[in-house]
TrEMBL record:
Residues 218-228 have a biased composition (Basic and acidic residues). InterPro entries: HAD-like_sf, HAD_sf, HAD_SF_ppase_IIIC, MDP-1_euk, MDP_1_eu_arc. One of its GO terms (molecular function) is acid phosphatase activity. This is Magnesium-dependent phosphatase-1. Residues 205-228 are annotated as: Disordered. It comes from the Eukaryota. Pfam families: Acid_PPase.
Length: 228
């Protein structure tokens, strides 16, 4: 079903993701959030495709087609990244401002992937929509999307990363979410690794800041005690 070249490339990608687990003490965010258009796939689903979107042909992997036969797939590294996150037990969220939420959900439902997670048998498949624990798909500021993800999941903003291709959406940083800008063409392993490492560095900096603040408070308290 898969060419030797595809299998080799997938194995190399999985090796790279596994190595990332050993970097920086293997600390991981509790949720990774993705935009959809031009972040996970190369289109605006409210502009470039015409619903309904369905898996086509019926046995295809990572491919849907619209009413006119126009194809849509995830960027090449996206399936492995999503499956890696699920293997790690990390929650996955969507924050999309598309004006065609039904088309977006049709695409996520139709984009079927080979399920390479641990414990799965060769050839098992999974609908990509099943990999996303939380979905906020509607027009408006991404601040609203991230606030709802936080409220629904109970996960702190500081434990989230948000990947998006539009710089204006970096406003979510004011909440404490780490924003990672996705370049063209879309999310790839390099950008994903960069985001994870930035989050780990930020986490370490916050921990050191908190430790310094605690020490400062204790020091002041001791000074007050000595003065008494």
């Amino acid at each position: 079903m898969y060419s030797p070249g595809y299998i080799h490339q997938r194995a190399k990608l999985q090796e790279s993701l596994a190595r990332l687990d050993d970097d920086g003490g293997a600390a991981c965010p509790k949720m990774v959030v993705f935009d959809l258009d031009y972040t996970l796939w190369p289109a605006w689903v409210d502009t470039h495709v015409t619903p309904p979107l369905k898996r086509a042909p019926p046995t295809s992997i990572n491919r849907v087609a619209d009413r006119h036969g126009e194809a849509l797939s995830f960027f090449p590294h996206v399936p492995a990244i999503l499956l890696h996150l699920k293997d790690k037990g990390i929650k996955i969220g969507v924050a999309s401002r598309t004006s065609a939420p039904s088309a977006a959900r049709q695409a996520l439902t139709g984009l079927v992937l080979e399920d390479t997670r641990k414990g799965k048998k060769p050839g098992e498949e999974v609908k990509s929509i099943a990999l996303f624990d939380y979905q906020e798909i509607y027009p408006g500021s991404k601040l609203t999307h991230l606030k709802r993800l936080h409220a629904d999941s109970g996960i702190a903003y500081e434990d989230m990363i948000f990947f998006d291709d539009e710089h204006r959406n970096s406003e979510v940083g004011k909440l404490g979410v780490l924003f990672v800008l996705v370049g063209h063409p879309g999310l790839d392993l390099g950008t994903f690794e960069k985001g994870i490492r930035e989050w780990r560095q930020l986490r370490q900096a916050r921990a050191e800041e908190g430790h310094a603040g605690t020490n400062g408070t204790l020091h002041d308290h001791r000074q007050d005690s000595d003065g008494e």
